[in-house]
Amino acid sequence: MTRVSGLLSIEVVVDGNQVVDARASGGQFRGFEMMMRGRHVTDAPYFTERVCGICSAAHGYAGALVADRAYHNELPPNGWILRNFILGAEILQNQIRHFYLLSLPDFVEFPPVPPFQGVVGGDYRLGVAATGRMVANYIRAVDASRKCHEMMAAFAGKAPHAHGMVPGGVSVPVTADRVLKCSSLLEETISFLDDCYLPDVETLAGAYPDYFQIGSRPARFYSSGLFRVGPRMDTPLTPSGVLYDGRVEPVDPLFIQEHLRRSWFDEGLPHPAPDPDKPLAYTWSTAPRYRGMALEVGPLARRAVCEASGPPGRTLFPGPGTGTMDRLIARAVEARQIASLIWDLLKTLEPGAPTVAQNPSVADPFVSITVEAPRGTLQHTMLVAGEEIARYNIITPSAWNFSPHDNCGNPGPAEEALIGTVLADPGCPVEVGRIVRAFDPCMSCATHVIRPGRGVKVLAVGQPVGVASSGHDTTQRGVEDARDLGCSRGP
Amino acid sequence: MDYCDFRDLVTCSGENTTAVLIRELNRFLDQAAKPKPPVIWFEANACSGDSISLFNAAGPGLEQILSSIIDLRYSNALMAAEGPAAIEELAAAATANAGVFVLVVEGAIPVAARGRYGIVSWRGPMGTAGDAVTVASIVEWLGSLAGSVVAVGTCATHGGPSAARPNPSGSLGTSAALGRRDVINVTGCPAHPDWTMATLAHLLMYGPPGLDRWGRPTLIYGDTVHRHCQRRSYFDRGEFATGPGRRECMFEAGCVGPVTHSDCPYRQWNSYVNWPVKASTPCIGCTTPEFPDGSTPFFAPLPVKRPGSPPGGHKEGIRV
Ligand code: SF4
Fold it and tell me: Count of CB atoms within 10 A of residue B162's CB?
């Protein structure tokens, strides 16, 4: 599949005109968890950034936070403010590029010059004027997203694969010139969002109203809360939780399992190894499940969890729908909110005040954190021996969204969204690309995951709240229980 | 414009010079009355970072690159076509331009397990035997047809992070995978957009650029980071930062600038606003063939992470 990050193949089984089964296959495996073993704890941010070139700052943010927790670093205000600013700029870059560079050619007919030649079929519904405006805005989007990376690099050294997020904070001092540069770039970004991105999404939504329905799936979402504030960066700015059956409940990490039946890993504990010839498997992505459920993560999930966690009386989820257009709209609306938020962050920076505070030695050998990346919830888990990484596990947003069928045979979220779709022309299934790209797949991210196996036992130890109250002890038995429970309660 | 001017142009970058670059390029292409050279940009086992980095190009920006400089026949990241139509575009572009097109490879080539660590598409139903179209097979095929091959990013040149130990996917750099010695290597994690464009520009305007022993254009990788670093005076006076975030030389904090060849200190990144040492962090040697294994632990001093390497070169002229 083109216009996705990394290698992704989609297979749909069609009966008549209807998709009756779907498979999402992540085609690449590099094995970052295996590579992390034996490296120094402080290598986590720079090394894990290489997992993903389009959201490297999210891995840098998570990797730096993992190291902070291990060392018990307490960040100075400038440090954690800048971490969030950098992540915010990365998300803006990502969302703008996603909509214009990756998604738009699904809906808008571009002039057939390379690299836009060779499209088969269409279903393009915009008139000449709107099409022209969108194509012009595509070019403006190239500029706008470049400026987001420029703003990020002012404090992060470079992008992709930033240097500024180091254990203990951010390495670049706060100075008036940098704040001014970022303010001016952010102002331009906000104009772009207001003048192009939001109106263009609205135009698409008007022309393709059926896509509020196409790509729908059950409203089951997961968000760990966007941005983290405070010296330990432990307070998310937006609500966290798992939403299903119309309600939000706090996340209990014990209920997160990675199923392997359809993934190219052997299922042996404690260290599942890659098994590229495993029969019946079809992807390098694992299938993370929560209580056996496939949860969608990303901007729509953050919005849904936020709305359902709202003031009393609004605890049920009416919210947006769960269709393709809802995903595109949620991403755009959230981008605008993020722009305002990082604008406020910029104003709270204090020139001359410290940006880094590092403790000298590891205080906590086991750390598990979840943060929000552009595409959704990202979990880094690390076990340390001395100052060396003994185990590292990453569950990426695209592992959630593009997970395969699980051990109970239930499809992953993107697969769910495809199943049931009625194709207007099965010979030219434009719906499939539109549905899938609205999730913003990143397969370089998704496809390197290894279940921690017995390491899950340790997972509970590092979680101060939630686990104890769940009634599960921290033994492997508890994990097995959770796994069984997960399957029996599958959707 | 002769070669020397051109070299000045690309080594002292900035908005103005790059504007000149594109004008010169266009004039050259007009003069030669050549059609735009066909380019196939193939993403192997990568993180897409080199594509994203190219999207960050400033003067010529991406739109100018696409409209005026190259004829991008295939790009996984950008093309509008999808599915079988995209694969058809790839096949048509490669066969119609055999011996002429420039193959750009992004990412490493996984060769373990018959290439199944990098699967581009499927011939039959997924998950059945013998059905996967692998990155390795496509790169091999494209490599046999390409007029020239440019590997962009350290994964594509020497394996890079995709081949970091223990390298479970058996990833290789393009030259090693193809057994082809004339691959032009644009190292970097990611490659700076100017490095990619300057290399393509040189190739199109003057033919293959001069290469160093690692196959890298000397116009970019001719000197070490250390040689041109703004913090060199601190180094020479023995004033070393104890960690990131300080203003002294980053050698003790892990800098591998003394053994890393690139023009980062002059060029800088992201519309030329910053680069790692300016950001008060060590250079991690992302343009070296040994990256990343030769650079970790990232914050350990060079003699610790590369025992036997020069102790940091207290004299000018450290070249490895
Ligand atoms: S060791 Fe690094 S920071 Fe110090 S002068 Fe050399 S390149 Fe610059």
Answer: 32
Which residue from A52, A156, A276 is facing B116, i.e. has the nearest CB? A276
| Residue found by looking up tokens 């094995």 in the block | A31
Residue A290 has φ and ψ, to the nearest 5°, of -115, 120
Averaged pLDDT, groups of 10, chain B, 320 residues long = 38 46 55 69 92 91 83 84 81 91 96 90 70 89 95 98 96 95 96 95 91 96 96 97 96 97 97 97 98 96 82 38
> How far, in Å, is the centroid of ligand 1 from the Cα of A174?
22
Confirm or reject: Cβ of B135 under 6 Å from ligand 1: no
Whose CA is closest to A106, among A26, A218, A214? A214
Residue B103 has φ and ψ, to the nearest 5°, of -95, 120
Whole-prediction pTM = 0.89
Tell me the backbone φ, ψ of residue A469, rounded to 5 degrees.
Answer: -75, -10
**Which residue of chain A is at minimal alpha-carbon distance from B274?**
A157
Asked if omega into A426 is within 30° of 0 (cis), the reply is: no
Which tokens is A432 given?
């499939």
* Cα distance between residue B300 and residue B295, in whole Å: 9
Which residues, other chains included, contact B98 with Cβ-Cβ below 8 Å and sequence gap of 6+?
A: B145
Query: Would you say A2 and B81 are in contact if contact means Cβ atoms under 8 Å apart?
Result: yes
Cβ within 8 Å of residue A355, ≥6 positions away: A76, A78, A79, A82, A169, A170, A171, A172, A173, A174, B245
Pocket test for ligand 1, best of B232, B305, B319 (most atoms within 8 A of CB): B232
User: Which alpha helices (DSSP H) does chain B contain, by range?
Assistant: 3-11, 15-31, 49-55, 62-64, 83-96, 135-145, 154-158, 174-178, 193-206, 218-221, 225-228, 232-237, 264-267, 302-305
Describe the strand order of the beta sheet including A388-395 as a list of residue ranges.
A366-373, A376-385, A388-395
Q: What is the spatial distance between Cα A486 and Cα A252, in angstroms, rounded to a whole number? A: 12
Name the minimum distance, in Å, from the CA of B85 to any CA of chain A: 7
Q: Is residue A37 classed exposed, middle or buried when 0-12, 13-18 and 19+ CB atoms within 10 A define those classes?
A: middle
Q: Which residues numbered 157-196 in B keep a CB inside 8 Å of some CB on A?
A: 160-162, 164-169, 171, 189-190
Residue of B120, B126, B196 to mutate, testing the A interface (most A Cβ within 10 Å of its Cβ)? B126
Rounded-to-integer distance, Cα A416 and Cα A413, Å? 5
Q: Which residue has its alpha carbon closest to ligand 1 atom 6?
A: B226
What is the C-alpha separation between A231 and A359, in angstroms, rounded? 13
Q: How many CA atoms lie within 13 A of B60 on its CB side?
A: 23
SS3 state at B316: coil
| Ligand 1 pocket test target in B223, B224, B250 with most atoms within 8 Å of CB | B250
Size (chain B), residues: 320
Q: Which two tokens stand for residue A154?
A: 């002012």
Average pLDDT value for residue range A350-370:
96
A384: burial class by Cβ within 10 Å (0-12, 13-18, 19+)? buried
Tens digit of pLDDT for each residue in A1-15? 777 666 788 888 888
